[in-house]
Amino acid sequence: MQTLTQNDLQFVVRRIPKDVRDILTRGPFLLGGGFIRETVASGDVKDIDLFGPSKGQLLDAAAALALKREVKEHTTDNAITVLCPPRLPVQFITRWVFDAAEPLVQSFDFTVCQAAIWFDRKSEQWMSCVADHFYSDLAARRLVYTSPARDEEAGGSMMRVRKFLARGYNIQALSLGAVISRVASKVQYRPDMTEPERAQIIAALLYEVDPLLVVDGLEPINEHDEA
């Protein structure tokens, strides 16, 4: 594992809303994924994703932020989201819990997502952790699939490939093959099935909302949504 450059770390921290920075400095939470990637790449930030060591701590932090912003929380099986337009949504990811940055970074499905920052209260400094190829793959806008060992819907990473391709990223055959392999591993065919019937089964898997869509944005991707 590597770290963000000091300039990038400071750049990311300065762009975190103050009330979210307060959560990170006071509690054992991590910020990971798309916010860091898009900030470093000067891209379109969609949301802020926070992780923590227990579901209870995440629920308490989400409730406190919602109360402070005087808004309601949006609850799914994957996260508690504090929506306060036009401010960025803040998502407290509850499907997975992490008490350290490295396991969190390793859980992301593409290297360009493998980044986390946190505030170390002992040293009173901001810290970071990124995958070894985070910078090079981000610079090349290259999707490299990590085949993470995680509880997920089979079609989630494939739908994320679709989203990234629409944003100008590219994916090479080996990584695309690995993504397809994950989808295929969950499909059971009858010997007499036609190709259109098999396609319907795969499409059904792709329509399922992957947990890490919540890590990178609340909305699912479907035929009418290319965001």
Question: Can you give keywords for this protein?
Answer:
227 residues, alpha+beta, Beta Polymerase, domain 2, 2 domains, two-stranded parallel ribbon, 10 helices, 15% strand, disordered C terminus
Give a description of the structure.
The protein has helices spanning 6-14, 18-26, 34-40, 55-69, 101-107, 134-140, 156-166, 173-184, 195-207, 211-216; strands spanning 30-32, 48-51, 73-75, 79-82, 90-93, 115-120, 125-130, 142-143, 170-171. Residues 209-227 have low confidence and may be disordered. The longest helix is centred in the first third of the chain and has 15 residues, at 55-69. The protein folds into two domains: 6-140, Beta Polymerase, domain 2; 142-216, no CATH class. With 227 residues, it is an alpha+beta fold. A hairpin with a 4-residue loop joins strand 6 (115-120) and strand 7 (125-130). It contains ten helices and nine strands. A seven-stranded mixed β-sheet has the order 3-4-5-2-1-6-7, with helices on both faces. The chain has a two-stranded parallel sheet with strand order 8-9.
